[in-house]
Amino acid sequence: MNLRKKFNHIYNFERSIGSSVALRVIKAQPIGVWEFLIPIVFILHFMRNKQSREIFIQNYMFTKRHALDAAFKMLKKGSSREDVLSGIEDKTRALLIAPETQGIYSETIRQQQMDEIDLLFDHYYKLLGANGQDYDALIRNAYGSRQNYLIFHQQLVSVEKKVSAAARQTLGSKADVDALLRIEKTTEETRQIRIEKIFQS
Q1: pLDDT tens-digit profile of 119-129?
Q2: What are the domain boundaries of the chain?
Q3: Are the CB atoms for 131 and 8 separated by under 8 Å?
């Protein structure tokens, strides 16, 4: 399978997780086009507009898309790891001074997001270098066993919770903690279903 097809399998998997979670925790409501242009961590938009599934998915995908694009670029163009990740550093720093993110995006959130992106970058790089005709096969061939994959999965859960904690710290009393806990629980349940499918005997 070529690199672009692997990219698409990975992207579609991640988006499907975000979509499944959104369907379970957010009721549908139309949104404005401008809202797609503010890519910050999902809890922040969830706080502003609890009814928007697509906003949730776009924000869920924020760190995933940055990491996946970087891993793809490194393999496709021969860029260095340092170069592709420094580009993400620049983009996330720019969000700190954007007028629309003042008071809801902080250096603390950004640093935790970069830790998540760093972990995801290595994960996606491994998947893009594996053999397989679909996402499940890429995971099995990249990790070799359910246990090896679960080690990554637990690391991902840990870094995502640190991003959420940074968001709660930044937002203070404005943070919708109950919503965040529902999102975390639903995301984990959704992923566990997929893990069972990938490694079923």
Answers
A1: 999 999 999 99
A2: 3-198
A3: no
Q: Could you tell me the pTM of the whole model?
A: 0.84
Closest by Cα among 193, 199, 190 to 145: 199
Determine the angle formed by the axes of helices 3-25 and 53-77, rounding to 10 degrees: 160
Q: Select from 76, 96, 74, 100 the least CA-distant residue to 87.
A: 74
182 by Cβ neighbours in 10 Å (0-12 / 13-18 / 19+) ranks as middle
CB 149 within 8 A of CB 199: yes
On the CB side of 115, how many CA atoms lie within 13 Å of its CA? 16
Q: What are the angstrom distances between the C-alpha of 153 and each of 5, 97, 102, 106, 184?
A: 23, 33, 32, 26, 13
Cβ neighbours of 13 (radius 10 Å):
18
* Mean pLDDT of all residues in 183-201: 91
